[in-house]
Design brief:
The structure is a homodimer. Chain A has 14 helices and eleven strands. By secondary structure, chain A is an alpha/beta fold. In chain A, the strands form two sheets. An eight-stranded mixed sheet of chain A has the order 3-2-1-7-8-9-11-10, with helices on both faces.
Chain lengths: 328, 328
Amino acid sequence: MSFKNIVVIGGGTGSFTVLSGLKVFRNLNLHAIVTMADNGGSTGKLRDELGVLPPGDARQCLVALAESSDVLRDLFNYRFDSGELSGHNFGNLFLSALEKITGNFEEAVKTASAILSIRGQVIPVTTENIHLSMTLANGETLLGESAIATCDVISHHKVSHIELLPKTEINPKAYDAIMKADSVIIGPGNFYCSLVPAMIVPGMKEALSKTSAQIIYNVNLMSKTGHSNGWSVEEHIQQLHRFIGAEVIDIALYNTTHPNKDLIERYKEEGLPVQRDTDTSYIGKTALIGEDLIADTLFINQHKKDPIRRTFIRHDSLKLAEALYRLI
Amino acid sequence: MSFKNIVVIGGGTGSFTVLSGLKVFRNLNLHAIVTMADNGGSTGKLRDELGVLPPGDARQCLVALAESSDVLRDLFNYRFDSGELSGHNFGNLFLSALEKITGNFEEAVKTASAILSIRGQVIPVTTENIHLSMTLANGETLLGESAIATCDVISHHKVSHIELLPKTEINPKAYDAIMKADSVIIGPGNFYCSLVPAMIVPGMKEALSKTSAQIIYNVNLMSKTGHSNGWSVEEHIQQLHRFIGAEVIDIALYNTTHPNKDLIERYKEEGLPVQRDTDTSYIGKTALIGEDLIADTLFINQHKKDPIRRTFIRHDSLKLAEALYRLI
């Protein structure tokens, strides 16, 4: 059994799914590079009120990689549901309090990593306090990931420019991890809110272009209405390349199983299944590989206070991990 | 070196001081039995809003016994100082979130004990959700420790009755610890808010009467204006016996060094040094032992949002521990 260095780039539920699945393969040395642009919900409040970096995406990766008791994993995911703490996630408070004490978000992640006995490493893509800014072709500017997440006319108006403010650079530890990786896995995840904010960090294009790692893109199962209306598998690849600024993806892994019709009907206002619109095996140098990746059961433990409605058509963590493992 | 089972009863800063000091003696097996009546500050809000047991006193004992890194101890003591989390103590949130997850405060304490690598055990004196109720001789009833802590006419009107509501019983683990102890140490601490709420738990009188352990009472350095005006060492012992309901104290350890005059002047509105008013060596069966127990340096890291003003005339943790160690 040969050991492999694997980098997973993204945030939120997408990285959680990939990491939870890949964790079962004991020969993989996992590095989660985490998007750092979230400013909504519990994370947004902590940023505003305490001046800390966004803990939410890092927290989900930490929990995914945790090998501690279930109680500690549950604790890091626990959301207070009454009183003035309502909506705050305990793991977020943990990282934020530690950042206030140590003055350093990476130290906070390190301490949390030890407590949760994580397998692998969680690396913020940047350690500066940045926000995402998107300008649409009609001239409108959306400041902050939360404004972008809830905007439903991005597809209509098209994105003319997207950047992180203030000017930042890739965390050298993230750069090194990509350079030393055998495989880099991007996504799945909210395209503009989880993937693009990591792709556009200055230095990411260089890292993804220079690394000898195989680069795999997990194409989303569903498009997102208002963001990626009607995007095919092929369009997803082209769009990701557009924001990276280079054609770096070696393999795009997409789902071939059509979701249950009732579910499609139920969520058609939120998005539609992502499908192929050609029958080619390659787009440029990117190989397209289709697999059954969809979860049979619904994901039902959505928090009722969660302001962003999440799709219940999900990647199956193990199916996805097995498909990835065959490639890496 | 023989191992000894030591029980420390109280809460807050008093137990923190005793436990921090005794921890250096590696042959002591420490058990902190913690008062569970607090309903003020961060603890009170958590009780009201989440319906949890009061975490504050247990948290201070956990930190005192922690042998983990300074970062984790700092984390458990960290108090958020801005936004809607302002005033909340992280360690309290930790215990409360764990109690919500496990449904069990003792499980929460156990998990925190493991994370903090504590030496010894922290045992809630009762695991029921109780409040302290005090009736003064003028008929007025004060409900909740917080109302009692801030009432400044208790000395004037005298206490006619004090009880925990609803009816509760001593935690069997606390009872067992007392029965198996070589020494039981009570106080120092706020008389009506830290000591009495532990002494009056049904079953405590029986445990303290039946145990073969030596029982030591650390008499407070200072009286508290409105609560214990002008109480001497002797009066403290008699009052404690009154609330226990039996004369169980073998040794009362009191301070013989007069605090700095400037400090006395500065804090004279809050209280005065506790002094002897007889020259006997015994009160009933209780031996009175005087030692230099006072800290030379001020305790200055008081939190600015702390609603209860704390005295800066303190027991020296090491002097107190050394004096206790000579007795046990």
